[in-house]
Design brief:
The complex is a heterodimer of chains A (about 270) and B (about 230). Chain A contains nine helices and no strands. By secondary structure, chain A is mostly helical. Chain A has one domain. Chain B contains seven helices and no strands. In chain B, α5 (about 135-160) packs antiparallel against α6 (about 165-185) and α6 packs antiparallel against α7. The radius of gyration of chain B is 18 Å and the shape is elongated. Chain B starts with a helix and ends in a 5-residue tail after the last helix. The chains are: A mainly alpha (about 270), B mainly alpha (about 230). Chains A and B meet through α3, α4, α6 and α7 of A and α2, α3, α6 and α7 of B.
C-alpha cells in the first residue's frame, strides 16, 4: 500500500513519550511481578497491562513519526516488524538472563537488546536498502523497545510474573502468544493507520492508541482467566474495559472536533434496503 | 546452551529465501484493491505472513511424522504455494467476474509466458489490473521460496530448543523482519519477476543476510526450557 501519509504537528515530543513508555513499561512489569510474587497472588497482573499501554503509546507515536515520511509499504508492515523484533529479542533477553543466573534482569536486558536490534535494522534499511529516512534508526529503535515491552508486559498479565520458564509454560506452550502477538501488533499499528491523512492530529491518534492498547490488555486479561484464575482475570478485564470506554468516548469527542460536521442521517427510508 | 554454526547458516538461508520470495509475489497494495494496479490488493507483509504461516503449519505437520529436513522444507513450501495460489485465483475471480477487468500487466508489453500483448487491455487511467499469468507464476515461485524459508527456520530452531510453540513464533518473528525489509526494498508494490523493481533483489539479499545473521545468533542462544 502506498501511503500518502501526512502527520500533523506534534504537541508531545516522541522522546518524552519514549521516556515515559520505557520507564513506565519496565517499572510496571517489575511491580506486577514482584507484588504478585511477594503476596503470592495474581491480582497485580493488571499493573503490567497499564505499563503496556504506555509502551504502545510510544510505539504508536514512533509509527506516526516514521510513516509521515511515506515508507511506501503501508503502516501495518512497520507495526508487524516492531512486534517481530520485540518477540524474538524479548524472549532472548528473558532466556539469556535465566541462563546466566540473573533472571531478575530479564526484562531490562530484553528491552535494551530489542532497542539495539531495532537500531541495527534501521541502519540496514537506511544504509543497505537506501530508504534514506532520517528518523528510521531512531524510530525502529523505539519500536523494538515498544514491541519488547508489549510482549513481556502482556505475558506478565497472563503469567503473573516474568520468569522465563513460567512464561514458556503459560504463554508460549498454551498458544496465548498468538493472541499477544496479534493484539499487540494491532494496538501499535492501527491508530495511525486509521487516523492518517492531511487532517491527522496527534492527540486524536494517541487517544485512539489508548483505546487499542486497552483492548490488547483486555485480550490478555481474557487469556489470564485460564492461567491466573477468574478473580485476577476479571480484575484485568474490568480495568481494561473502563480504560477502553473512557478513551473511546474521548476519542469520539476528538473525532467530532476534527470532523467538518457529524450529521445524523437517520434510518434508511422504507424500501431503501 | 549449544552454539551450532550450521543452525545459524540455516536461519540465514531461510531468511534469504523469505526476502527473495517476497520479490516474486505480485503485491498491488491499495491501488490493486480498487483494480487500478496489477497484483493482489493488499500489502506485502499480509501476503507474506499469510502464505508463510500456512507453510509453517504444513511444515509442523510434516515434522510430527518425520525429521527429514528436505521433506519438511518441501512440505512448508507446498503449503505456502497452495495458500498464495488460492489467494491469487480467488482474487482473479473477483477482478474478472466481479469488477469486470481482464488480468493485465502494465510493466511489460508482452506476457513473457503466454506472449499475449498487454497494452490493449489496460483500462485508461490504471496501471494494469488483476493477476496475469506471469504474475501468477511469479507468485507461486514466491510462495515456494517463502514457505521453504520459513520452514527451514522452523526446522533449524526446533533442533536447537525442541519447543514447537517457541520455534514457531521465533520463525514468525524472523519471517516478519525479513519480509518487511524486503518490502521496503520494493517500496510496497511489485508485479513479479518481470517487474523492473525485481532488479533490486541484490540489495534485499544483503539486508536480509545481515538481519538474519543477527537474529540467527540470538535464536540459537535461546533455550527451550525444561
Amino acid at each position: 500500500m502506498s501511503v500518502a501519509a501526512g502527520g500533523g504537528e506534534s504537541k508531545i515530543d516522541l522522546k518524552q513519550l519514549t521516556i515515559y513508555g520505557v520507564g513506565g513499561g519496565i517499572l510496571s512489569i517489575y511491580l506486577a511481578s514482584i507484588l504478585n510474587g511477594a503476596l503470592d497472588t495474581g491480582y497485580f497482573a493488571f499493573l503490567a497491562g497499564l505499563g503496556v499501554i504506555a509502551a504502545i503509546l510510544m510505539g504508536s507515536e514512533a509509527v506516526r513519526t516514521v510513516c509521515a515520511y511515506g515508507i511506501g509499504t503501508g503502516v501495518p508492515s512497520i507495526g508487524l516488524m516492531a512486534m517481530g523484533m520485540g518477540l524474538v529479542v524479548a524472549l532472548f533477553g528473558l532466556s539469556i538472563a535465566t541462563s546466566i543466573g540473573f533472571g531478575i534482569a530479564g526484562p531490562i536486558i530484553g528491552v535494551i537488546l530489542a532497542m539495539a536490534f531495532g537500531y541495527l535494522i534501521g541502519l540496514i534499511a537506511n544504509k543497505v536498502i537506501k530508504m534514506n529516512i532520517p528518523v528510521m534508526e531512531e524510530t525502529l529503535m523505539i519500536l523494538g523497545g515498544a514491541g519488547a515491552i508489549t510482549l513481556i508486559g502482556l505475558s506478565v498479565v497472563i503469567a503473573g510474573g516474568f520468569d522465563y520458564q513460567l512464561i514458556l509454560d503459560t504463554v508460549i506452550n498454551t498458544g496465548y502468544i498468538a493472541v499477544i502477538f496479534i493484539a499487540g501488533t494491532l494496538a501499535i499499528l492501527h491508530p495511525f493507520n486509521a487516523n492518517l491523512g492531511p487532517d491527522e492530529t496527534q492527540d486524536r491518534t494517541l487517544v485512539h492508541t489508548i483505546s487499542t492498547a486497552a483492548l490488547a490488555m483486555f485480550a490478555a486479561g481474557l487469556a489470564s482467566l485460564a492461567t491466573l484464575g477468574s478473580a485476577a482475570g476479571v480484575l484485568t478485564m474490568l480495568i481494561a474495559a473502563i480504560i477502553w470506554i473512557w478513551s473511546f468516548m474521548w476519542y469520539f469527542k476528538l473525532v467530532k472536533r476534527d470532523a467538518s460536521g457529524v450529521p445524523g442521517t437517520g434510518l434508511l427510508p422504507p424500501g431503501g434496503m | 546452551m549449544t552454539f551450532d554454526p550450521i543452525v545459524i547458516l540455516e536461519i540465514v538461508i531461510g531468511g534469504l529465501f523469505v526476502g527473495v520470495g517476497v520479490h516474486f509475489v505480485p503485491v498491488g497494495g491499495a491501488p490493486a484493491a480498487m483494480a487500478q494496479a496489477t497484483g493482489v490488493g493488499t500489502g506485502t507483509v499480509q501476503l507474506a505472513a499469510g502464505s508463510g504461516l500456512t507453510g509453517l503449519l504444513s511444515a509442523g505437520l510434516m515434522m510430527s511424522v518425520t525429521d527429514n529436513m528436505l521433506l519438511i522444507v518441501i512440505s512448508g513450501a507446498v503449503g505456502a504455494m497452495i495458500m498464495i495460489d488460492a489467494t491469487m485465483i480467488v482474487g482473479n475471480w473477483v477482478y474478472i467476474y466481479g469488477v469486470g477487468v481482464p488480468p493485465v500487466s502494465a510493466k511489460t508489453d508482452y506476457d513473457p509466458i503466454t506472449k499475449d500483448p498487454q497494452p490493449p487491455y489496460i483500462s485508461a487511467g490504471t496501471v494494469g489490473h488483476g493477476i496475469p499469468t506471469v504474475s501468477f507464476v511469479s507468485g507461486t515461485i514466491g510462495g515456494f521460496l517463502g514457505g521453504a524459508g520459513g520452514s527451514l527456520i522452523y526446522y533449524a530452531l526446533m533442533n536447537v530448543n525442541g519447543n514447537p510453540g517457541l520455534s514457531g513464533f521465533f520463525a514468525i518473528g524472523i519471517f516478519v523482519v525479513n519480509a518487511v525489509l524486503a518490502s521496503y526494498n520494493i517500496q510496497g508494490t511489485i508485479e513479479g519477476f518481470h517487474d523492473p523493481k525485481f532488479k533490486r533483489v541484490p540489495k534485499a539479499v544483503q539486508a536480509c543476510a545481515a538481519a538474519s545473521l543477527i537474529v540467527g545468533i540470538i535464536a540459537v542462544l535461546i533455550t527451550g526450557g525444561a
